[in-house]
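re the bet — no i am not wrong, look at it urself. input seq straight from the record:
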Amino acid sequence: MSWLNLGLYLLIYSFLGWCSEVLYYAVTKRQFRNRGFLTLPFLLSYGIAADLMILTLPALAGRYGVQFLFTMAIVSVTESFSDHLNRQLGPKVHWGGERSRVLGGSLKGLVFSAAVAAGFYAGYLVVHPLVLGVLTLVPELLKRAAVWVLFALMAADFAGVLYTLRTGGVRAYERREARSSEGRIAGRLTQYVWRRLQRAYPGIRGMSQEEQDEFYIFAHGVCLDKLVWVFLASALLGEVIETFWCGLVNGQWMNRSSVLYGPFSFVWGLGAVVLTVTLQRLAQRDSFFVFTAGFFIGGTYEYMCSVFTELVFGTVFWDYSHMPLNIGGRTNVLFCFFWGVLAVFWIKGIYPKMSRSIERLPALAGKILTWVVVFLMVCNGLLTCAAMLRYNIRSVQPQPSNAFEEFLDQQYGDGFVEHRWPNMIVTEP
């Protein structure tokens, strides 16, 4: 699977998703609504969900029930992240009751999620083969040009919408003060975008000053700042737990960190973020409901992590093929059960206490520390990726081709990498 194909699928299914929602509103409401966050006819949540399905479902070929459950989990997680991201992109905006609630913490929301997943799965079985057939007829140069041009247009579109939501353009329009900016491109842009968003989401409005003050409290609610600290704390705690678990169960103490520097397990950190974003609305639901959601979401997440590392790095960090009821050796029912139990403890007990502790950080210091953590973790992650890729390539290309590869060979040779990740299995050089 090439990045070009993934980009094409993202564009195609984002457009098809936009068409389906426009058609739905045209039939049910008898009116046209551009349901996208962007001005262009793309709903990126559809494209992202489709890409994730295309990456994971082929490994489950013939197991239709399991494929559908994975589809349902992918759709739910994607929509929840999309909903959360939209809220964070518009800090001066209240979206009203127009935002989606796929995992809304109710039986109705779960039924709706299953219905949406059924539509996605039907598209995967029926539409995707047709898309593959059409793409084989398109010249490679044309596909590359289309991807670059459309992604550039989407970037510009996104910048325009973000400018409107994060500046005074919204408030100016609501106060009917936009006349002063009629001669400026920025003024006309914000007016156009704001009108379009009001048509797409009738419940949208500018926040009151009181609402904005509450919004700007450091790490208020489930925001990016809080998720960064949830990730950091969970990555550290997860690494400690895994280290002791392997030492006690297997009698072997080994490093379980995901990165070159520091005791941090990215799998645990990202897992905590996924559980927080998708399940925090379920905190008031009964424990069985939370357990069931965590069972499927956690299993799907673990499976996708395994697929990602194998596709990108050609390595596998865990293999459950020897265990009963495993799914492609990437996860199994027992660990899905553990994910469900963890979800209950996390949402009902651990996360609320951690959330309150994070919110006690001073606003200015918290913001500065958050970006320091993000910078260090990104650098650590990128260097780790480079070292792992070079380790994989070194078996077929031992001689470095540039100064950076020479640096990687000197600092992170085979012995260093194998000692750092003793359980890593190379599947494909």
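see?? The longest strand covers residues 93-94. told u. also Residues 224-426 form one domain. so pay up
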